[in-house]
Amino acid sequence: MGWFDMNSSLKKHLSATTIAAGLAAAFFAGGLVAPTQNVLAEAVRVEAPKAPSFADVVDAVSPAVVSVRVKSQRQNSNFRGTRGMDSLPENHPFRRFFGPEGSERFGDRPRRFGDRWNERRRQGRRDRPRRFSASQGSGFFVSDDGYVVTNNHVVENGSSFQVVLKDGTELDAKLVGTDPKTDLAVLKVDEKRKFTYVSFAKQKSRVGEWVVAVGNPFGLGGTVTAGIVSASGRDIGSGPYDDFIQIDAAVNKGNSGGPAFNLNGEVIGVNTAIFSPSGGNVGIAFAISAATSEVVVADLIKNGSVTRGWLGVQIQPVTKDIAESLGLTAASGAIVASVQDGSPAQKDGLTSGDVIQKVDGKDVKGPKELARLIASYEPAETAKITVFRNGRSVEVPVQLGKLPVTPTRVAATQPRNDGRPVDVEQLGLAVQQTRNGIIVADVIPGSAAEERGLRPGDVIVSLNGKDARSVNDVGSAVAQAMEDNRRSVLLQVRRNDRNSFIAVPIDQG
Fold this sequence. Notes:
Elements: H1 3-28, H2 55-61, E1 65-74, H3 95-98, H4 115-127, E2 131-141, E3 147-151, H5 152-155, E4 160-164, E5 170-179, E6 184-188, E7 210-215, E8 223-234, E9 244-247, E10 259-261, E11 267-274, E12 285-289, H6 290-303, E13 309-310, E14 313-317, H7 320-326, E15 334-339, H8 344-347, E16 355-359, E17 362-363, H9 367-375, E18 382-389, E19 392-399, E20 401-402, E21 422-424, E22 429-434, E23 437-443, H10 448-451, E24 459-463, E25 466-467, H11 471-483, E26 488-495, E27 498-505
Antiparallel strand pairs: 1-2, 1-4, 2-3, 3-6, 4-5, 5-6, 7-8, 7-10, 8-9, 9-12, 10-11, 11-12, 13-20, 14-15, 15-16, 16-17, 16-18, 18-19, 21-22, 22-23, 23-24, 24-25, 24-26, 26-27
């Protein structure tokens, strides 16, 4: 018998002996127990509920998103960002690098070589080629023939433009048009190929919906972040047509001009601004709404510029005090503070004090909405303006004009103190007759007039919709308001070059 056979027999013998011993031990212990074995525990695994994935959306839309590189000419020093360093104290250790004598150390030779060398230096400065600065942002294709949407502030002052595709391909682009009022711009890539493109969402995004931002933050390119729509209709004071979507998807420098998508792969907004004390993402970003972007982009592609309807009025919100003083049931609409000379509004009969309530049947909640509605019309189109005037609503058809590049400014009036001040205690002010009209001579500290922002020198143009011609008109307006059981008087006030309406409560004590 060989060694292998003997070993096998031994194994069988030992196994039998071990099993017998185990059974015997179990028997004498009072029960039958199975032999112990080493059992490995399974790794923890949880069946998570199915959640929406962004992967399919990203796969579909990312080829349409590009990085935008902008080169602009500039004549600048070698030390960009050192502004203010030339005012360092004389004993400051950095002054020798950035102070007035710093040019002797960086780039310029000492002057010990005489006039000939100095002349060569001066000539070299004149012949020095212009330096270029580069900036970058994001964009996206909106057509298969190469139209790219981005921000105006990304391409502003640019002399040449490039777009970088997802695969790294760099393509030259030309600027088609810009619209600074909405911060939108369009580039065009002339390349014989079909580009993957995306479209703007037709439905308004809802607060709480998922949003995916794709762009080029910090030049990293192809970066995807996700979040939700935090708010809509935001006015951040950037222009007359503010209608921003607020999102909490991470947006940083370089994301400007990039798209924010819904889960259907539609663009709900163009990322344009962030709110950040530090300059980095803090979860508050703003995107130009699809509704605004689509109209502006279409105009830029078609005409290279945006044409907007123009009414020619200076407007302000209708506050509760103003509404009450006019007898309006709700504080909505836009009150006309002044009408520009020669404007469509003046030609077709709108007057100061009119409260614009509707445009072609569409409600006007405030000045911003009115501005957007009028801007959506083409010049020469007629809009039916519903206004509240003298206690009733009237309809005024106005043939709109073309919005001027620089709106006409109302000339300022400098009042002169010609007459004696007259106290109007019910309003908490004193008024004075001048050659240029009725001015506020004094405001009682702590009065309602002071709380509403009236100041000495303000010119009172009208009272409760009627022209103010004398100081007696002020007292008459107060008396009439009290007779009509109204708690305030509506003053139209001119300050510097602007008109505004201020409803001042009447002190009836």
